[in-house]
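Renewal narrative, Specific Aim 1. Our central claim is that a sequence can be written position by position from structural information alone. The example that follows is taken directly from our test logs and has not been curated for this report. It begins with the structure tokens describing the chain, in the order in which they were read.
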């Protein structure tokens, strides 16, 4: 099997570290690995397949030649600045930030949903990895849409603090410890409000239409990935005091009826989906139980009696894995199988 020169940009962050884990777990054919991060990570060494690799400072590097695949998770601005430079020097960039997702020349890919879009990487040498909440949503909706054509989607998310990075994880931990010790809960610095024992109905900034940027990401990205620009979809995104894993309450209306039994049949056969749904046994997906898993889990499947062809779903996935790192590595796997 051919091996490839791979780079991970933003390697010391939560997603970057998970990318290394997933590359190793899936035995991705890495010939040579280069790691990049910001100046504060200078001198850091990370372990990959038993060997230590020193992290390079992205801002101090001028030559990216020889890199064939670059996995980016370094924030939108660094992606805007550096992804074209990596592509210029011959790499295909798979970017986890929001920087390129809505660029009409850049494919936005979830391999279980639209792997054919990967071919568009030749436009700019960049492939965009969707928002974590969008990924798990479309993986479940695709088989249902293929069967019954979805007309409208209403989604409410319950997103863990790891989606906001390591500092948000540390913040939740510190606030919970303070409460347990009978101390005043310290104010949040990296989230809009105190997160311990609380739900915050705001992820990212508010826009002029009163939606948050996160909500509009979900709306626009779902339309692009599913190739339905006119899709009626609305979203409310909520940060919850959970460390890992995003959950979503989803209501869909379809052109033709999908029974609970048919939905379970379709989803049980869908790639990357696990159905956990047995009300009598209190069986349904839980964030605490899907952490560390690559699949998207779905349960609480039931008909919506308020409309003619409605269905309710509860969707849960590990946001650092399928919601970010695993999806990026899966894209890379399709890329080397079909195009490189």
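The sequence written for that structure reads:
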């Amino acid at each position: 099997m051919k091996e490839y020169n791979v780079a991970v940009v933003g390697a010391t962050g939560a997603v970057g570290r998970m990318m290394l884990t997933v590359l190793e777990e899936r035995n991705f054919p890495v010939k040579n690995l280069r790691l990049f991060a910001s100046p504060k990570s200078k001198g850091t060494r990370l372990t990959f397949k038993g060997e230590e690799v020193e992290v390079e400072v992205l801002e101090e590097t001028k030559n990216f030649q020889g890199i064939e695949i670059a996995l980016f998770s370094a924030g939108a601005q660094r992606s805007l600045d550096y992804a074209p430079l990596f592509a210029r020097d011959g790499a295909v960039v798979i970017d986890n930030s929001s920087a390129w997702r809505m660029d009409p020349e850049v494919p936005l890919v979830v391999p279980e949903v639209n792997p054919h879009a990967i071919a568009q990487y030749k436009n700019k040498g960049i492939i965009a990895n969707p928002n974590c909440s969008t990924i798990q949503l479309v993986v479940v909706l695709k088989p249902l849409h293929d069967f019954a054509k979805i007309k409208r989607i209403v989604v409410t998310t319950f997103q863990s603090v790891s989606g906001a990075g390591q500092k948000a994880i540390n913040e939740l931990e510190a606030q919970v410890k303070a409460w347990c010790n009978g101390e005043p809960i310290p104010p949040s610095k990296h989230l809009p409000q105190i997160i311990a024992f609380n739900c915050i109905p705001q992820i990212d900034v508010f826009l002029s239409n009163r939606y948050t940027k996160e909500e509009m990401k979900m709306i626009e990205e779902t339309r692009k990935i599913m190739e339905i620009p006119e899709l009626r979809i609305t979203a409310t995104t909520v940060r919850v005091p959970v460390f890992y894993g995003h959950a979503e309450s989803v209501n869909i209306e379809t052109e033709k009826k999908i029974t609970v039994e048919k939905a379970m049949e379709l989803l049980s056969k869908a790639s990357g989906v696990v159905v956990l749904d047995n009300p009598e046994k209190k069986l349904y997906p839980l964030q605490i139980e899907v952490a560390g898993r690559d699949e998207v889990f779905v349960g609480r499947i039931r008909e919506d009696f308020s409309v003619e062809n409605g269905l309710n779903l509860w969707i849960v996935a590990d946001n650092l894995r399928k919601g970010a790192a695993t999806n990026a590595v899966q894209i890379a796997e399709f890329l080397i199988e079909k195009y490189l």
